[in-house]
Amino acid sequence: MVCTMKTGFATAVTCIAMRRGAIVFIPSSFHFKVQAPGRAVLTTQLFFPGEPRNQVDSLFRPQLLMNIRDTPLLMSAQFDFVIEA
Predict the structure, then answer these.
(1) Rounded to the nearest 5°, which phi and psi values hold at 69?
(2) Does some domain include residue 45?
(3) Which end of the chain offers a freer environment for a tag, N or C, measured as fewer CB atoms within 10 Å?
(4) Sign of CA dihedral 4, 9, 14, 20
(5) pTM of the complete model
(6) What is the separation, in whole angstroms, between the first and last Cα of the chain?
């Protein structure tokens, strides 16, 4: 679980496994549950832009694409969840 700061900002760190030689039918994505205090939980997933399998995933929506920034040492992604408090 990751709790946000008072500003609503949070950071999550993960790694992406390389799938060499595997047959994969779904795109790479991050799964999240987001909740404001006293509100219902929003369960969703975020997708990587340019992933060819996005187009064949029935859950894919362009609105769920992350903003990606690659650097020589790492990849960072940003997505703004807007939920009613």
Answers:
(1) -130, 115
(2) yes
(3) N
(4) positive
(5) 0.73
(6) 19
